[in-house]
Design a protein that fits this description.
The complex is a heterodimer of chains A (about 575) and B (about 625).
Chain A lengths: L16 H35 L5 H47 L2 H6 L2 H43 L1 H9 L1 H38 L1 H6 L3 H53 L5 H42 L21 E9 L6 E10 L4 E6 L5 H8 L7 E6 L2 E2 L5 H6 L1 E4 L10 H5 L8 H10 L25 H13 L5 E5 L7 H16 L2 E6 L2 H4 L4 E6 L2 E6 L1 H7 L1 H7 L16
Parallel strand pairs in A: 3-8, 3-9, 6-7, 7-8
Antiparallel strand pairs in A: 1-2, 1-4, 4-5, 9-10
Helix pairs in contact in A: 1-2, 1-4, 2-4, 4-5, 4-6, 4-9, 6-8, 6-9, 8-9, 13-14, 17-18
Chain B lengths: L22 H4 L17 H16 L3 H32 L1 H4 L7 H49 L2 H51 L5 H44 L1 H6 L3 H53 L5 H23 L1 H19 L20 E10 L2 E11 L4 E5 L6 H8 L7 E6 L2 E2 L5 H7 E4 L10 H6 L7 H11 L2 H5 L18 H15 L3 E5 L7 H14 L4 E5 L3 H5 L3 E6 L2 E6 L1 H7 L2 H12 L2
Helix pairs in contact in B: 2-11, 3-5, 3-6, 3-10, 5-6, 6-10, 6-11, 7-9, 7-11, 9-10, 15-17, 20-21
Classes of the chains: A alpha/beta (about 575), B alpha/beta (about 625).
């Protein structure tokens, strides 16, 4: 038996016990009131109408009206309560899902396509809500109705009743078989939809590249192949569902024919009255509609079930980077950094990036990290903020293994400027204050001045201007400068700058370096560099090659004595034959 | 009412949700120019006709199938309606012969039973056919729509995409298309069966007894008023939910897309706060719209119940007077029950209808959007472009700010030209105009003496390739990403391109070499590596003209050296426009153009300009100083 992912939503219902009790109770009342309508009609036909007593109709009319008003005001309240429960559950579930995604490490996000995560947060969780708000209660009411009607039928005529109940067996078998097959198809559809979403996302975000190469038709062919695959799977769903619906719809109607036949004989043998048969048939007709409806509701349930499974896949993933049980808070940091025999392998692969990095940065020192493309410079930088953990060895801050510190306190001491500054669709101010919400206007002004980013004051709404994807678009250099300002704004003890000036023109770069110098003077900094100009900021350089730090020393010493270093940083390109022998022939 | 917990009645009253929100809470988003082109409320009528046209064009190819589906569903509804009549027939005429000591003929009863079975089978079979046909039509329509929208977005100009933003492009193609999909999946069946049932039952009731049908005629206007109210309200509620979920999605995608920055800057709590706030607005909007459905549904039911009560009363009255038979009254009540059910049913799906209508509205809006950079009707064929580029009195304004006025530039075939200048001088504008990402506001940009606007856009972009600093990689292997430059290229050519550009070594070192999936674990390429892949892509594409828009900024010196060397071969007999702030790349140019506020202030071979001691000489000196 498959584990039911949907059941795991139950804890989310716990805070709503009272509402749920009301919903269940009022559902029972509603079913009762609905089933009373034929009884009232019967009473009218067998009573006042037969007796020709017009006055006798009045109390029945009053009863029917009262019953209708009571039941429907209950229904109204029930649906209201239900919508509150369902939307609360949905919201809480989505909030938790988002929190879990924020908790999950960068490695997880590298592995998962964002389209897959979005479709879980949006479509899948909405499916669960729709089932909870509509399907679940309907399912309960239908089952309740079926039970009550079965009881009534047994009471009216035991043999015909048993015959009717026997038809429930094929219905149940059919439902179970359907569930199994439908489950597989729906899961396929949801996964394929996720893939399609990813394609759509890439075609949208990569539109410039696609256009630059005139490859729209190529992208369309890829997209179209996925669309057609999805269409075929959807058709398989239609086939499975249709077969189920039509077989399921046959059963109650054929039962009706059998009951009519059997009932007629029962009447002729005198074991059933004509009135009884009429009542029996009326109830059976009431049953037809819910059973037909069952086909849709079960499909909905199955979709919600698969959706819940997809959501729980993410909830069940443990973040690889999290606070340890005894993680300590580091209130103040001197800024002494050590890498001790640090190894790094990308999670789940055997691609060794770092084989044993030993490196020490003294408090207040600025170290330039130099290495060829892909040598692991950025990896070292990200290990320092614990975006990843080393596979072997350790990284320490002031002698504490980073894994023994809380993530929040560790990251609060580190200002990070990425090679590609990620700006969010928010005001400039919000983007600047992202890591240090408490910074003052003076801090902002200072940071913008250092990063040569005072252009921000000239934007249409100055610091309130929205930038990022949904706002004003900035040039690569402008983004980088905002990113730099963001890193230094909170005056963190440690600065990690990953090639932070690559998109700046020479003049601006020189000005930024000038302004940055005093800031770097009194804090520990690790600067990943590609250019000699940036190295000038550092007290010392370290060269990484083959997954190890192979040399450290002053820029000029290394340039003179370390050919590998010179090969990377010396601009005298042509004279100095590159040591790599892969140079194009 | 013992079940009723005291918090249930806390219905918030008809406060329309204001999703623009209170300023204090939303300050973080900052201010932007008014949000672009979401359909305004006043335009409803016009928009509806636009989406009707779209729907019509989507359905037209399926006319025959639709007619067949309509026939089948009519059969099915007729079968459904015949059921109760046959039962009554069986009871009234089939049973009495059996009652006289059981000696009567079985025939009437058997006839009814056989008819019932036959009609059940007919109903089920026709429903089966209906579901299969509509299912197929639905999926085909969806496929057609997906294709059209995708192609159209690809055709729309870069300036459109810059304004519209990728977030909207994505949500058009996902949630809006899916809304229509849901509608086609569930809505059509409900809509068709419900409408036909209501109409069919109305006819049956009037035929059974016109007098007894009078209470129903009275109920109809009440239902009409109720429905109008519901439609008006839920249209607003529905918009509120869509606006709210859009904000949730944008925040979700963006914050998780920048998860590195989020973690590094400990932004999780603030993100969570914003997310929960947006999500709660979505919840409120949902509660609002569900409350409307929760009012309408039971409202219809109430009308139905009261009508039933009145029919029992009035029918009883008539029966006592002998104007109506008891059998007819009973049948009437059976049908009446099914009369109001479908209306209820329709209200459940109303949100679905609206979702798809709104989705259709937006999609038709997008499809109506003209490609501002459109391909001409009779494009000039571009077989072997020599690559001569010319700007002829070009003017261009970006966001109403003139960037270029009366700009002339001539790049003879095979020449490599570098454009330098401060930020905002118009370098990128020149690059984008040359690649026809944008069209000039005045004047002409020409390739081989022909206005770029005369060419087919795809052909043009294959002849003039741009490499930019954003090096987007698509899902797939490294080889596939390079292969985008020339999709039919054999693997050997792909590898040769990578070798030529100096990317072969790092690619070979990846877990699966050229077959490594770029978005899979272990394959995180650095910005420099991605730039190399982009160059290899351009190398493979082998265009007539190449535009490098800050394409070397993320390269380190060894990589740059490799690219440099490759460029010498690549650019040897090719027209090229290089925009770079690193003068290394500029050095290989035959000619340098210095731009200042949209004007050419210096123009000549690099050596000459350095000797002349002007603007470029200054830049060159600053660059030399930075190398030490």
């Amino acid at each position: 038996m498959r584990e039911r992912a949907l059941w795991r939503v139950l804890p989310y219902l716990r805070p709503h016990k009272k509402r749920l009790a009301f919903i269940a109770g009022s559902a029972v009342v509603s079913v009762g009131a609905q089933l009373a309508v034929p009884l009232i009609a019967e009473a009218a036909i067998d009573g006042p109408i037969r007796d020709g007593n017009k006055r006798g109709l009045v109390p029945l009319l009053a009863l029917a009206v009262a019953l209708a008003i009571v039941e429907l005001s209950l229904t109204y309240r029930r649906r209201l309560a239900l919508s509150r429960v369902a939307t609360s559950v949905e919201t809480k579930l989505r909030d938790d899902f988002y929190a879990q995604l924020q908790r999950l490490d960068v490695g997880f996000h590298d592995r998962w396509q964002s389209g897959q995560l979005l479709s879980r947060a949006n479509s899948d969780i909405s499916l669960i809500r729709r089932f909870a708000a509509f399907g679940a209660i309907f399912l309960v009411i239908v089952i309740l109705e079926v039970i009550v009607i079965f009881a009534l039928l047994l009471h009216l005529d035991p043999r015909l009743g048993l015959l009717t109940i026997a038809t429930a067996v094929p219905v149940v078998i059919l439902c179970r078989r359907f569930e199994r097959r439908y489950h597989t198809v729906v899961r396929d559809i949801q996964d394929q939809t996720g893939d399609l979403t990813t394609m759509i996302e890439e075609a949208a975000r990569g539109i410039r590249v696609i256009k630059a190469f005139g490859r729209s038709d190529e992208m369309f062919n890829r997209y179209d192949a996925r669309c057609r695959q999805l269409r075929d799977t959807e058709m398989e769903r239609v086939r499975v569902h249709t077969r189920f619906i039509w077989v399921l719809g046959l059963i109650p109607n054929l039962t009706l024919a059998a009951v009519l036949l059997g009932g007629a004989f029962a009447v002729s043998w005198g074991s059933l009255s004509v009135g009884g048969l009429v009542a029996f048939v009326s109830y059976l007709l009431i049953l037809v509609f819910p059973i037909e409806e069952l086909a849709w509701i079960l499909a909905m349930a199955e979709e919600a079930e698969t959706a819940a499974g997809r959501v729980w896949e993410v909830f069940d993933t443990e973040p690889l980077i999290a606070d340890g049980a005894n993680a300590a808070t580091l209130a103040r940091a001197r800024g002494e950094i050590r890498f001790e025999g640090v190894q790094f392998v990308y999670p789940g692969t055997d691609k060794i990036v770092l084989r044993g990095v030993d490196l020490a940065i003294q408090p207040g020192e600025t170290l330039a990290l130099v290495g060829a493309t892909g040598s692991g410079k950025t990896t070292i930088a990200t290990l320092l903020t614990r975006l990843y953990d080393p596979a072997g060895g350790r990284v320490t801050l002031d002698g504490h293994d980073l894994r023994d510190l809380t993530l929040r306190s560790l990251r609060a001491h580190i200002g990070f400027a990425f090679e590609e500054a990620t700006l969010f669709s928010a005001s400039v101010r919000e983007n600047l204050l992202i890591g240090f919400p408490g910074a003052s206007d003076a801090d902002i002004e200072h940071a913008l001045a250092v990063a040569q980013a005072t252009f921000a004051y000239d934007l249409p709404w100055a610091l309130d201007t929205r930038i990022g994807e949904q706002g004003l678009s900035l040039s690569g250099g402008q983004r980088q400068r905002i990113g730099l300002a963001r890193a230094i704004i909170g005056r963190p003890r440690v600065l990690v700058l990953d090639d932070p000036l690559s998109a700046l023109d020479v003049h601006t770069e020189a000005r930024v370096e000038e302004a940055l110098r005093p800031i770097l003077a009194d804090r520990t900094s690790l600067v990943v560099v590609h250019r000699p100009s940036t190295v000038a900021l550092a007290d010392r350089s370290a060269l990484i090659d083959g997954g190890r730090i192979v040399a450290t020393g002053s820029h000029h010493d290394l340039l003179e004595h370390e050919p590998r270093y010179a090969a990377i940083l010396s601009q005298a390109a042509e004279e100095l034959e590159a040591p790599q022998d892969q140079v194009a022939s | 009412m013992i079940f009723e917990p005291d918090e249930v009645p806390d219905v918030d009253h008809d406060v329309p949700l204001d999703l623009t929100g209170d300023a204090a809470v939303d300050a973080w988003r900052g201010v932007a120019a008014e949000d672009v082109d979401e359909p305004g409320r006043g335009l409803a009528g016009m928009l509806r006709s636009r989406s009707r046209r779209l729907l019509g064009s989507l359905l037209r190819p399926h006319r025959r199938s639709l007619a067949l589906a309509a026939l089948l569903i009519t059969c099915n509804v007729a079968a459904q309606l015949a059921g109760p009549l046959l039962v009554r027939e069986g009871i009234d005429n089939g049973i009495p012969p059996l009652l006289d000591g059981g000696s009567g003929s079985l025939r009437p009863l058997l006839t009814v039973v056989v008819a019932l079975v036959a009609i059940t089978l007919l109903g089920a079979a026709s429903f089966n056919g209906f579901l299969m046909i509509t299912g197929r039509i639905g999926q085909d329509v969806l496929l057609d729509l997906r294709r059209r929208v995708f192609v159209h977005f690809q055709d729309l100009s870069m300036s459109f995409h810059e304004k519209y933003t990728s977030g909207r492009v994505i949500s058009r193609q996902t949630s809006d298309v899916e809304a229509l999909g849901e509608m086609l999946k569930f809505g059509i069946v409900t809509l068709a069966t419900s409408t036909l049932l209501i109409a069919g039952i109305a006819v049956v009731l009037v035929v059974l007894n016109a007098q007894l049908a009078i209470p129903i005629l009275v109920a109809l206007p009440v239902l009409w008023v109720l429905t109008r109210w519901f439609r008006g309200q839920s249209e607003r509620a529905y918009r509120a939910t869509r606006d709210a979920i859009a904000l949730v999605i944008v925040h979700f995608v963006e914050s998780l897309g920048g998860i590195q920055a989020v973690h590094a800057f400990r932004r999780e709590p603030r993100n969570q706060e914003i997310f929960e706030h947006l999500d709660d607005r979505y919840r409120q909007a949902n509660v609002w719209s569900q409350r409307l459905a929760g009012t309408y549904g039971p409202g219809v039911q109430l009308v139905g119940r009261l009508t039933t009560a009145i029919v029992i009363f009035y029918g009883g009255w008539l029966a006592i007077d002998g104007k109506v038979s008891v059998g007819v009254l009973a049948a009437f009540l059976l049908y009446l029950r099914r009369f109001f059910e479908p209306m209820q049913e329709l209200s459940q799906f109303y949100n679905l209808f609206q979702a798809s209508a709104a989705g259709l509205e937006k999609l038709s809006g997008v499809l109506d959007e003209d490609a501002t950079v459109a391909s001409p009707a009779n494009p000039v064929t571009l077989t072997h472009a020599s690559g001569a580029l010319r700007f002829d009195a070009v003017g261009f304004a970006y966001r109403e700010r003139p960037v270029l006025t009366d700009f002339d530039l001539d790049v003879p075939a095979g020449e490599t030209i570098a454009i330098v200048g401060a930020t905002g001088a118009g370098k990128t504008t020149v690059a984008r105009l040359a690649a026809r990402f944008w069209d000039p506001t005045s004047g002409r940009v020409m390739l081989d003496g022909v206005d770029l606007r005369e060419f087919d856009a795809l052909e043009l972009h294959r002849a003039i390739v741009t490499v930019t600093q954003e090096n987007f990689l698509f899902t797939g292997s490294v080889a596939e990403n390079i292969g985008l430059g020339r999709p039919d290229a054999p693997r050997a050519d792909v590898e040769a391109a990578a070798r030529a550009i100096g990317a072969h070594d790092f690619i070979s070192a990846l877990p699966d070499g050229y077959d490594t999936d770029v978005h899979q674990k272990g394959a995180r390429l650095s910005a420099g590596q991605r730039q190399l892949v982009a160059f290899a892509r351009a190398f493979l594409a082998d265009p007539a003209a190449l535009i490098l828009d800050e394409a070397t900024s993320s390269l380190d010196i060894p990589s740059e050296r490799l690219v440099q060397r490759a460029l010498r071969t690549l650019l040897a007999d090719r027209t090229a426009v290089i925009i770079a702030h690193r003068l290394t790349t500029v050095e290989i140019a035959d000619r340098v153009v210095v731009l200042e506020r949209g004007r050419i202030v210096e123009d000549g071979p690099p050596r000459e300009l350095i000797d002349r001691g002007g603007e470029y000489a200054g830049l060159h000196q600053a660059w030399l100083d930075s190398l030490v």
